[in-house]
Amino acid sequence: MVRHGAFPFATGLKVFRVLATLFFSLCFLGLVIGLVWAAALAYVLSAVLVFYACSQRGWSIKKISQIEIFNVARTHVKFPAQSALPAFFDNLSMLIPVYLATSLYGADDVGQWGLTRMVLALPMAMIAGAMAQVLMKKLHDMLVQHPFCNFPEH
Questions:
Q1: How much is the pTM?
Q2: Cα–Cα dist 69/18, whole Å
């Protein structure tokens, strides 16, 4: 959607998903599994909004064929492998302090600390995600316009 000019909608959708998660987590206050249900409901609402926005722009699932999906998968088969190692080390850097703190302090204290750390990191993650989308679009546009680059337009 970002590539086709729906960047404001995609960015707004991320903000909406976070706000929906916050709203639903407040509704499920007191339930242990409340955050999981809140995140799931927020993603369901996001999916509904994405399908609505796509239908408003004239996009249809009927236009997508299985051969096109196979060709895209074959073209981008190495994409997950390229991001697997950085994602692994990112998760490791987030989990190791929690495991070390759990061995020194109680699970309740570490749980509160982990929740606080995640809440404080949320604005940074949202800003970084929005900046990455903007920069990726600009990079794509630059590569398409560059005369020496054989980069596909779609």
A1: 0.42
A2: 30
